[in-house]
Amino acid sequence: MAMQPTKWANLPLRLVGAVTLVVSAALWSLLFRTPTRSPDAIAFLLALLAFASLSAGSAMLVLGQHLFDQVELSQRWTRRY
Q: What's the whole-model pTM score?
């Protein structure tokens, strides 16, 4: 049974997206604030977390409830049993 969209269904997703963008901005600034001559594992981890959270946060903020919309796929891209 699908969830019925309501007027307030978008708000939590968009708020989580905005918070995620703030956290990713903090990670990004922390990444460039630490001067290193050669990147270490921590720098790569911070870059990975910042990129992933920027991507997820922007998707949640922009799409909101439409993030979970179902789309029809072409016959070409579906499994044939």
A: 0.72
The backbone torsions φ and ψ at residue 25, rounded to the nearest 5 degrees and listed phi first, read -65, -40
39-57 burial, b if ≥16 CB within 10 A, otherwise e?
eeeeeeebeebbeebbebb
DSSP 8: T
2 Cβ neighbours under 8 A, 6+ residues apart = none
Please name which of 78, 76, 55, 80 lies closest in space to residue 67, comparing C-alpha atoms.
Answer: 55
Mean of all residue pLDDT scores within the chain: 84
Helices and strands, counts by H and E, the chain? 2, 0
CA angle 13, 78, 72 (to 5 degrees): 45
> What was the pLDDT predicted at 76?
87
Confidence of residue 45 (pLDDT cuts 50, 70, 90): confident
